[in-house]
Input
Amino acid sequence: MKHFIDIADTSADEFIYLLDLADRLKAQHKSGRQHNNLNGKTLAMIFAKSSTRTRISFEVGMKQLGGHAIYLNTQDIQLGRGESVADTAQVLSRFVDAIMIRTFAHQDVLDLAECGSIPVINGLTDLMHPCQALADLMTVREHKGGLRGLKLAYLGDGNNVANSLLQACARVGMDVAVAAPSGYTCDPACIADAKKQAARQGSSVLLTDDPVVAARNADVLYTDTWVSMGQEDEKQARIAVFNAYQVNAAIMAAAKPDAIFLHCLPAYRGLEVTSEVIDGPASVVFDEAENRLHAQKAVLLHLLTGG
Ligand code: CP
Ligand code: NVA
Output
């Protein structure tokens, strides 16, 4: 594994390895033990979109591992004034040890990896959010004691978060169901990858437009905003399209009685989820947010030290 851009590039064993490493790093951190494996290493963090969790967790994560992170907003660096991705990749490769990037076009992340000589981590594109999926399954495993054989239902927009989650669940032998309105389901390549992996693992992938069918007997219910970054102009139309996909008490009742609720955050209460659910006993969204830190430390350690 040279980069962490697309879950499709991560084998099932590698994915489980990262989850195990993330658990160990979390336990070490909680016990107060220091880790200095990334001593002297620098991570450049390029952001073309807003972020709370990704920015903070990568910066704190590098610090906890003995390294250092630099925040680079595309409005401040020459990339935002037309310097090419290729030149930016080559220049950063001379200064830092790895790049984390959050941007719009997924191709820009692939180009950065292709043109540079250092590991690249996808901190979210319009297409994927692999770091989120890793932290999500870490959280599910913590709360459910395992992953294989569990059912996760994702309701709403088949967006970047859904695409990576679909790929991740299929790899670890979870049954995954995505309920999205027609025209808003997941990316075809991500669906194909998930189906291939699920066939290998003996698990299932279900794509439907019926939220109740997806949620039935689920161990995990998941949703994300109906209006992703860059789609602000479509807000009103999207709210109308996704209205029937809200995660509320009625849909939670279709899932297993001990089902947990996940959301990558930021959340919009009263739209994709009710306060009753996200602020209720089934919700583990803040554990999930916390786990971004440890999951990404695992990615950083693995990419930068092979550990
Ligand atoms: N979930 C997530 O990536 O959050 P941020 O947009 O705050 O980084
Ligand atoms: N789908 C959301 C995720 C935010 C973390 C977006 O792209 O805005």
Observations:
- The mean pLDDT is 97.
- The pocket of phosphoric acid mono(formamide)ester (ligand 1) is lined by residues 51-54, 124, 132, 264-265 (CB under 6 Å).
- The chain has twelve helices and nine strands.
- The chain has two domains: 7-128+291-305, 132-288.
